[in-house]
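User: Design a sequence. Structure:
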């Protein structure tokens, strides 16, 4: 029987695939330099079916080296999601394909400081945390506005550390214990609900880990009306789920949420 991997790195690709060539070599360096003695699976969930991904495992030079190492495995799966409405279904499938004790999710349009994957893995594996996030986040917005100091990746709802879907890690055991990601969400809140359901004593930031993110490129390409409709639908699901779970998933009023969405759309429009 095949031994389960110790770490699975799952990368959903929902646009911004031009940035993937930046994260792949960085990932390979991380695996070779720090994770060389750990069984690792790397999973790409591609919802757009780019031609270059059809031979992705063997055509990308960095992945050729990766495939030559027995403890590393690469999995590519094309998923049908033309409207970008099945995010958490794709996430659940990625975890299943990774077949690992510990999972780290990454966007394909991020960069990470060296050792970030390894340090996040250690916290999950050795300290048995439910969930971890990198402590520092810088976005393209920060750089464009000359705000080069990364901000702390901590948001609090009733005392909980909240994630960014750009990069976070969790144990397979915890994922299974909560019934996996809630697939009723289509755009937002699935990762937030997961964090809120975790034992707050087992959720933390990894101070040595940091990322740079290019903003929400998949959302940027969506028709604005579709994005707003999906965001409101997810907000309503979060309210109902909060009642079911006896927690507050998002404390904002309708007016506050509407204001946030309008500002978000303005930011997206500026990035065209």
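Assistant: Done.
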């Amino acid at each position: 029987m095949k031994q389960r991997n110790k770490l699975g790195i799952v990368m959903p690709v929902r646009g911004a695939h031009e940035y993937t060539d930046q994260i792949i070599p960085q990932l390979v360096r991380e695996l070779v330099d720090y994770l060389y003695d750990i069984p690792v699976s790397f999973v790409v969930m591609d919802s757009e079916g780019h031609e270059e991904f059809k031979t992705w495992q063997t055509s990308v030079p960095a992945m050729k080296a990766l495939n030559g190492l027995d403890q590393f495995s690469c999995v590519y799966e094309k998923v049908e999601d033309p409207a970008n409405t099945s995010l958490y279904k794709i996430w659940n499938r990625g975890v299943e394909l990774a077949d690992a004790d510990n999972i780290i999710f990454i966007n394909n349009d991020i960069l990470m400081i060296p050792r970030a994957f390894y340090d996040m893995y250690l916290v999950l594996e050795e300290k048995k945390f439910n969930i971890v996030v990198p402590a520092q986040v810088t976005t393209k917005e920060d750089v464009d506005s000359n705000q080069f100091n990364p901000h702390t990746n901590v948001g609090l709802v009733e005392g909980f550390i909240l994630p960014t879907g750009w990069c976070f890690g969790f144990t397979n055991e915890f994922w299974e214990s909560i019934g996996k990601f809630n697939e009723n969400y289509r755009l937002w809140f699935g990762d937030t609900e997961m964090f809120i359901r975790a034992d707050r004593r087992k959720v933390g930031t990894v101070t040595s880990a940091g990322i740079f993110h290019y903003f929400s490129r998949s959302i940027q390409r969506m028709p604005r009306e579709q994005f707003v409709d999906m965001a409101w639908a997810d907000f309503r699901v979060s309210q109902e789920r909060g009642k079911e779970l006896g927690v507050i998933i998002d404390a904002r009023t309708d007016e506050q949420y509407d204001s946030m969405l309008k500002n978000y759309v303005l930011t997206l429009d500026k990035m065209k």
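The longest strand covers residues 203-213. Residues 143-161 have pLDDT under 50 and may be disordered.
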